[in-house]
Structure formats: C-alpha cells, structure tokens
Design goal:
The complex is a heterodimer of chains A (about 550) and B (about 100).
Chain A lengths: L32 E3 L3 E3 L1 H18 L8 E5 L4 H14 L10 E8 L3 E2 L24 E2 L5 H9 L8 E2 L10 E2 L3 H18 L3 E5 L24 H15 L20 H13 L3 H22 L4 E3 L4 H13 L12 E2 L6 E3 L7 H10 L20 H15 L3 H11 L34 H12 L26 H8 L2 H6 L4 H7 L10 H23 L5 H6 L1
Parallel strand pairs in A: 3-4, 3-10, 4-9, 10-12
Antiparallel strand pairs in A: 1-2, 5-8, 6-7, 11-12
Helix pairs in contact in A: 2-9, 8-10, 8-11, 13-16
Chain B lengths: L4 E8 L11 E6 L8 H11 L9 E2 L2 E2 L3 E5 L2 E2 L15 E6 L5
Parallel strand pairs in B: 1-7
Antiparallel strand pairs in B: 1-2, 3-4, 5-6, 5-7
The chains are: A alpha/beta (about 550), B mainly beta (about 100).
C-alpha cells in the first residue's frame, strides 16, 4: 500500500537497447531501429510490423467496402507518401491479401510558403492582445537561405546584417505565395511519381477554391450505417465475382496535360491577398487547412469517391488534438478516431493513425519511398509563431523524455465522448459550422460559456435600429428558446451585413480564427454565398414559425 | 588523439533547408585531441555547415526533438546516441520528421 513518507527510490533505469542484441521479434538478425520504448527491430521484422499495422487498421474498421472508390490525399510529405505506397503494395499482393478498393490520388498544388516581406526582419504575430505576452529579447540573427537571397537580390535588398530587433507589440510572420518557378519545380517532381504509382490522379491548384460551389459546405445526408453482416457479405460476393470473371487491369493514368492547367493570375492574386491579409500564422494555418479540406471534398464528390484517406500519423493526431483544444474547438469539430463523418456522404479515414512519425521516416528511408518536399506556411517558423508550432514543440519535447506520450494521448482521445445534448441541436439535423462542419454547440441560455458570451455580444453589436426595411415590429415575434432567440429582431439588419452573416454561422474555434481577418471580403465567394443563404433561410424559418398556429415538427419541416 | 575522419553527412525531410538546400555533404573532420563522437560532430556542424536558425536543428547538447539521426542506416539509439564514436567513412543522416503530412 502506498504510504506517505515511504521511500520507493528511483525506478531501475532501463537498459537502452544495443546493436549487439538481437531483434526482439525474430531474435536472429541485427536490429536497425528502436520502436516504442526500447523494442529493437531488424529490417525485415520492422517492415512486417509496419505493413501489418496498416492492414490491420483497415481490416479492423470495416468501413471500406470492396470495389469502393477511395481518394488518397497526398501532400508529398512522408506520412501521406508512405500511405500511398502502402496502398500500392497492398493492391499488388496475391489475391487473398490484396486490398480491394479502387484508389485515386489527389495532390493540391500551391501550398503557400513563408517569405519575409519586410527586408531583413522576421516578425511574429501571437494570438493575444498586443503587449500582453512577453517577447523574446536579444539578438535575432537575420539571414536568408541562398535561394531566397537570390530573389530578394533582384529587388535590391541584398545583405542583411546581424541586428538587434527590439520587441514589438505586433509581430507579423507573413506568408505569401510561392513563385511560379518554384511551383513548376514541385510539379516536375510530383508528376513522375504520380505516373509511377499508376492510379488515376488529380492535381488541383489551391486557387480553385475560388471556383467551388456553395454546395461543398452542405453536409449531404449520410447513408444509413450498414448492418453487421453486410461487410462480410460484400467481401464474399466480391471474391466470388473475382473467381468467375477475369481480373480487370488497373486503369492506365490519364493523359497528363489534360489535368494540369496553370491557375488564372487573378485567382493567384486573390489567394495571395487573402493569406497576406490574415494577421496571425495560427489563423493562416487553420484557414489553409479548411480550404484544403473543402477542395478535397469537392474533387471527391465530383469524381464519385465516397472515402478520402489522409496520412495523419499518430504523432500528428496527438498534436492536432491538443492544438484543437487550445484553439477552442473542443471535441465537436474533430474526432481523432479512424473515421471522420462530418461531411456526410464523403467519409475521411486515417489508416496511418497508429504509426508514429519516427516509424514513417525510417520506413521511407529504408525502403526508398519517394517523397516530395514542399515548404509550407510554417517552414522555419520560430517555436512561438503559432499555436500549432508551440503545441508541436511541447508534445515532441515531452515525447523524448516520456516515450509513451503520443500513444497515450491518442488512446485517451479515443475514449473521449461528447456528452449528448437535449433538444434539436443534436444529431445530423442540427445547425453546423459553416467552415469546419462540426455541430454548433448553441445554447444561448448558457451565457457563462465563451460561446454564449460571443453570441450575445454579436446581437448587441448590431444594435436595434428602426426596422424600416422589413417593417417587422419588435416584441413578441421572438420565440423563446432555440438558436435565434437573441438575434431575431436584429436579424433583418444583419442579413445585409456579410461579415455578421458569416460569423454567426461559425463555431467558437472558427470565430476566433476569423477575428484575425480584418475583413471577410477576400474569402472565396462560395463561403460568402452559403453564409448569406443560411442566414436568409433561418430568418424565413423563424418568421414562418411565428405564423404557424400549431408549432409541430412536421409542419416546420415542410416549410 | 583522433586522426582526421572522412564522413558523409546527409540531411533529409526538410532539414536541408537549413544547409543551403544541399542534402549530402562529404566532410573531413580535422584531427583533434578528443575522439570524434556525435556530440562533437554536432558542434562542428553548427559551426561549419549550419547556415541559419541553429535553434531549429540543435537544442542544447543534442538535436532538436523531432529530428531523427541514423548512423549507417541504423537508429542512433542502438549505438549510444551522442556518445557513439565516429569511424572513417561513416554515414550520418539527419531526418526532420516535423515537416509534411
């Protein structure tokens, strides 16, 4: 029994694994990599372990049916490259163990890179009121890599001396577009890999967010969950067909030049303007992530893919979970499980969710998996540049001292369940955030929460003006309870204000992000249009609800 | 007294950005009193190869968390990490796992 004052002493230090020891699995070969906390694996056993984890993840969660079209989201980075390679190897195995779905690959071109705009100065923006957070003092070495030096030299800004940068209340880490040469170089590296892989591929420029339809933000109705035996029955029937019919050959890739069109200069300019107007790196990263998800969803729906596979590894998911908690997203926005069903008809799955970044990096190196390195928005960003970076540094530092940190965070997150809410907000039919499509946790009675305060604050901003536009009188038209109680009378004036239209459709996390955009005008049109539509629809619904004699669910649903 | 050593130092996963974009460096470590181990190598790299942002590569005595070190294609944890004594013609690879997805 544990007692106060009893001396337990230090735990016996664990012997680090040595090269002279044998692989823990086969006990024969020399180990090459240490996995988890001290298990040394040889090359062969490591490969088997890695592949087995991938296949087991797919097999355990019986979500992908035989013959289903699955879109692989490939960023060029190590995790997604590894995932694509696993799928490729899985499809080419002998028939009993072969993967049975039909893959396609999507690559989004034009992910932004960080470029210092102000000559010689890198500045940082932190998500807080100016002046409240202490900034690192002292000398900051100001230098640039040779590639960027070349570009800056063209503008006559060469030669940056070591200088002392005094702390400044607002530090801006600016991230703008990459040059066309850099993009062309990346594409030149990407295309041969896509051709070698052999799946149908889609290279989409990030600028295409400006051509997305508002329907991408609507959560399409989900297929009802298949009954228990349906998966097994589908597999049996598929295998039977395979025995009877000859094997179809994998489709050869389409003609490359039909798929890659350079984006219009106006769109590139608009994208650059949007991201340059965002004040903090945190908001930039969040916005980028949101736009990428929308783009992938659109392509998946357009080409008939019902599943999207992303290469999120265990480490990344642990970091993402903690970052989301820090950003105020809670559990509504993003579940860290195998599948993400927020978008309804398209389900996002994460087959790499039990692989750590170390395992991925080792596998890619030992077995020569091709990757394409593309600088991102936060490349070379200092540790405190954004909440994402801070959380990444925190988790990774903890992981070096406590090797089970990441796996514990992931496993614990699986056990977290959101408490069921009463009322119409629960379930698919409740309102959803415009951008991240999580269920909006609206409870206007609960003004003690930050969200409740924001909601009431919003209605106070647009203070009641005489409603001459619609002529609707104030007073008993507001129905008590429900999502729109506080804003009803001000809604008609707010309908005309696009900023308010968008903000009131967002969850708390997305609202906090939007605060870092001085104006919501540069956002792509589909977001503005859908926000307008939803606000109008809600207003009409509320108006009609007042007119009904009997407030029954059937009648409201029909109107 | 350590003789001069010729080692290949390689960077991957985005770490090469801190080294002028060059992935492979064939380096000759000068002879010195103490034997060359990874600890000394890191100091040498910081002084001679690292072009910018040392805090993104090195933290204190060791590499930043998130950067893997492979010595002759084997995990450095099997070889003693910072205390591994370098041999001639060794290959040391630093992979940054922090970039990409």
């Amino acid at each position: 029994m544990c007692q106060v004052g009893e001396d337990y002493g230090e735990p016996a230090p664990r012997e680090p694994p040595r090269r002279e020891q044998k692989c823990v699995k086969c006990k024969e070969a020399q180990p090459v990599v240490v996995i988890r906390a001290g298990d040394a694996f040889c090359r062969g056993c490591f490969k088997a372990f890695y592949i087995h984890k991938f296949r087991a993840m797919l097999g355990k969660n019986r979500l992908i049916f035989p013959g289903e079209k699955v879109l692989l989201a490939w960023s060029g980075g190590p995790s997604s490259s590894s995932m694509v390679w696993q799928v490729l190897e899985g499809l080419s195995q002998d028939s009993a163990k072969r993967l049975r779905f039909v893959p396609g690959v999507i690559f989004i071109d034009g992910i932004l890179a960080s470029v210092g705009r102000t000559p010689g100065v890198f500045t940082l923006a932190l998500r807080s009121a100016p002046g409240r957070i202490p900034f690192p003092r002292g000398k900051w070495q100001i230098s640039h890599s040779s590639s960027r030096k070349h570009r800056l030299a063209e503008r006559g800004l060469e030669g940056f001396p070591l200088g002392e940068v005094a702390p400044h209340p607002a530090w801006l880490f600016s991230a703008c577009g990459r040059s066309p040469e850099e993009r062309a170089k990346t594409l030149a590296e990407v295309k041969p890999i896509l051709q070698a892989i052999g799946f149908p591929w889609h290279v989409v420029a990030l600028e295409e967010v400006f051509s997305l339809p508002p329907s991408v933000l609507r959560c399409s109705s989900q297929e009802p969950a298949a009954p228990e035996g349906a998966y097994k029955a589908a597999v049996d029937s598929f295998l039977q067909q395979q025995r009877v019919l000859p094997q179809p050959r994998v489709q050869p890739p389409r003609d490359p030049q039909s798929l890659v069109r350079p984006p219009a200069a106006a769109q590139t300019e608009a994208l650059s303007h949007l991201f340059c107007s965002v004040r903090t790196l945190t908001a930039k990263e969040e916005l980028l992530q949101t736009l990428r998800v929308h783009l992938i969803l659109h392509v998946a729906r357009a080409h008939g893919y019902s599943k999207v596979m992303t290469g999120d590894s265990c480490t990344r998911l642990a970091i993402k979970l903690m970052t989301n908690l820090a950003l105020g997203r809670g559990l509504g926005a993003w579940r860290p499980g195998f599948s993400d069903e927020r978008h309804g008809d398209v389900v996002v799955v994460r087959p790499m969710r039990e692989h750590t970044l170390k395992e991925v990096a080792f596998y890619n190196r030992l077995f020569s998996v091709p990757c394409v390195f593309t600088p991102a928005v936060d490349t070379k960003a200092p540790e405190k540049a954004s909440i994402h970076r801070l959380m990444e540094a925190f988790i990774l530092r903890l992981q070096t001292q406590f090797p089970s940190t990441v796996s514990t965070v992931c496993r614990t997150s699986e056990k977290l369940v959101k408490a069921p809410r009463d009322g119409p907000a629960a379930g698919d039919c409740g309102p959803r955030c415009l951008l991240c499509m999580c269920a909006l946790d609206i409870d206007t009675a609960d003004s003690a929460t930050a969200f409740g305060v924001q909601t009431s604050h919003l209605s106070q901003i647009h203070s009641p003006t005489p409603l001459t536009e619609t002529g609707t009188p104030q007073g008993p038209c507001c129905s008590p309870g429900g999502a729109w109680a506080q804003g009803c009378c001000q809604r008609s004036s707010r309908r005309e204000d696009p900023q308010a239209c968008i903000v009131e459709q967002l969850c708390y996390g997305c609202r906090v992000n939007m605060k870092d955009l001085p104006s919501l005008e540069p956002l792509p049109q589909y977001i503005l249009a859908e926000a307008q539509l939803r606000t109008q629809r809600a207003w009409v619904l509320a108006e009609l609800r007042d007119c009904l004699i009997e407030d029954s669910d059937d009648e409201v649903g029909q109107s | 007294m350590a003789a001069p050593l010729s080692v290949e130092v390689e960077f991957g996963g985005g770490a090469e950005l801190l080294f002028d974009g060059i992935k492979k460096h064939q380096v000759t470590l000068p002879g010195q009193e103490e034997p060359w181990d990874i600890r000394n190598l890191l100091v040498w790299i910081k002084k001679n190869l690292l072009k910018e942002r040392p805090e993104l590569f090195i933290q204190g005595d060791s590499v930043r968390p998130g950067i893997l070190v492979l010595i002759n294609d084997a995990d450095w944890e099997l070889l003693g990490e910072l205390d591994y004594q370098l041999q001639d013609q060794d290959s040391v690879l630093f992979i940054s796992t922090l970039h990409g997805g």
